[in-house]
Design goal:
The chain is an alpha/beta fold. The longest helix has 16 residues. The structure holds adenosine monophosphate.
Length: 288
């Protein structure tokens, strides 16, 4: 496995892989790798023959007061994981390699970035789309893998790729969960034992939504109220949002019809946790 810290080095490795006719699969991450990230790497191994993982805690997607400084950075452990799962190239740049001090260019996707997390993390998606556009230009992958865990991010990136005519296929992979349903996240390690236990209620609230739709409920406000009741059992939590939106446009709906995205964001002690499910007629389905 090769490890590159510079853009020039990545370009050289990619050039060599392209020259051999390899299909490049790419998994962008912020590191602190876990089984969720590994599932993306495994899918990339299936669909491509040269797999690149980027490990970069992107400063521009964190707002003031967010956890940029304390975000975990266990690079050696991450490299061992990548090696073990057959990654060909890891790109682990320093911030100054990615952002020139004179940087004035940003990529902004409108509308889709306004609801859900966009309301609470101002500037977050601009940071995400900008870094992804840069990474796509550097790595020039044929196919890139994102987790449904961050559904809004995946939808926004898909839109950006279509709008900017980036020659790239986006694959959205299922959310990997702990046995109690909690979506695996690098931020789960911030939780105390009690908070970790309580965090299972996030998935329980999403399951409630699915069950209610399955038994014919159509009133979105009524379903959200039942989901909130479950989340309110968590002691000392702040619910940022509980939303049910159109699965494609992320627009607000009053009445369940077709594919809907149920999404939750809560602050639990030091962690901000998000989760979602995509529901169609009472069944959870996948984006792809
Ligand atoms: P991050 O390192 O948090 O930026 O995540 C990198 C990629 O891994 C993103 O596409 C995430 O959606 C994906 N990811 C994170 N957690 C999970 C999970 N539990 N299941 C599936 N994908 C995940």
């Amino acid at each position: 496995m090769k490890v590159a810290e510079t853009i020039e080095s990545v370009r050289n490795h990619i050039k060599a892989a392209h020259a051999k006719g390899k299909k490049i699969g790419f998994v962008p991450t912020m590191g602190a790798l876990h089984i969720g990230h590994i599932s993306l790497i495994e899918e990339a191994k299936k669909q491509a023959d040269y797999v690149v993982v980027s490990i970069f805690v992107n400063p521009t997607q964190f707002g003031p007061g967010e956890d940029f400084e304390k975000y975990p950075r266990p690079l050696e452990k991450d490299l061992d994981i990548c090696d073990k799962y057959g990654v060909d190239l890891v790109f682990a740049p320093a911030p100054k390699e990615m952002y020139d001090s004179q940087n004035l260019t940003w990529v902004t996707v409108e509308k889709l970035t306004e609801p859900l997390c966009g309301r609470f993390r101002l500037g977050h998606f601009r940071g995400v789309t900008t870094v992804c556009a840069k990474l796509f230009n550097i790595v020039q992958p044929d196919v890139t893998f994102f987790g449904q865990k961050d559904a809004q991010q995946a939808i926004v990136i898909k839109r950006m790729v279509a709008d900017l005519n980036i020659p790239l296929q986006i694959v959205i992979c299922p959310t990997v969960r702990e046995p109690d349903g909690l979506a695996v996240s690098s931020r789960n390690q911030y939780l105390s034992a009690q908070q970790r236990k309580d965090a299972a209620l996030i998935y329980k609230s999403l399951q409630k939504c699915k069950e209610m739709i399955g038994t014919g409920a159509t009133d979105v406000q009524q379903i959200i109220a039942e989901m909130q009741k479950i989340l309110q059992q968590i002691t000392s939590t702040e619910i940022e949002y509980v939303s049910i939106v159109n699965a494609e446009t992320l627009g607000e709906i009053d009445c369940i019809s077709g594919r809907v995205l149920a999404a939750v964001a809560v602050r639990l002690g030091p962690a901000r946790l998000i989760d979602n499910i995509l529901v169609d007629g009472g069944k959870t389905i996948m984006y792809n």
